[in-house]
Amino acid sequence: MSAQVKYTLDETQIPKDWYNIVADLPSPPPTVLHPGTKQPVGPSDLEPLFPMELILQEVATERAIEIPEPVRDIFRLWRPSPLIRARRLEKLLDTPAKIYFKYEGVSPAGSHKPNSAVPQAWFNKQAGTKKLTTETGAGQWGSSLAFAGSLFDIDVTVYQVRCSYDQKPYRRALMETYGARCVSSPSTETESGRAALKENPDTPGSLGIAISEAVEVAAKNPDVKYALGSVLNHVMLHQTIIGQEAIKQFELAGDDPDVIIACAGGGSNFAGLAFPFLGLQLRGGRKRRVIAVEPAACPSLSRGKYAYDYGDTAHLTPLMKMHTLGSTFIPPGFHSGGLRYHGMGPLVSHVYELGLIEARACEQIACFEAGVQFARAEGIVPAPESTHAVRCAIDEALRCKAEGKAETICFNLSGHGHFDMGAYINYFAGKLVDVHYDAGELAMALSLLPAVAAE
Amino acid sequence: MSAQVKYTLDETQIPKDWYNIVADLPSPPPTVLHPGTKQPVGPSDLEPLFPMELILQEVATERAIEIPEPVRDIFRLWRPSPLIRARRLEKLLDTPAKIYFKYEGVSPAGSHKPNSAVPQAWFNKQAGTKKLTTETGAGQWGSSLAFAGSLFDIDVTVYQVRCSYDQKPYRRALMETYGARCVSSPSTETESGRAALKENPDTPGSLGIAISEAVEVAAKNPDVKYALGSVLNHVMLHQTIIGQEAIKQFELAGDDPDVIIACAGGGSNFAGLAFPFLGLQLRGGRKRRVIAVEPAACPSLSRGKYAYDYGDTAHLTPLMKMHTLGSTFIPPGFHSGGLRYHGMGPLVSHVYELGLIEARACEQIACFEAGVQFARAEGIVPAPESTHAVRCAIDEALRCKAEGKAETICFNLSGHGHFDMGAYINYFAGKLVDVHYDAGELAMALSLLPAVAAE
Question: Are B110 and A1 in contact (CB < 8 Å)?
Answer without folding.
Answer: no
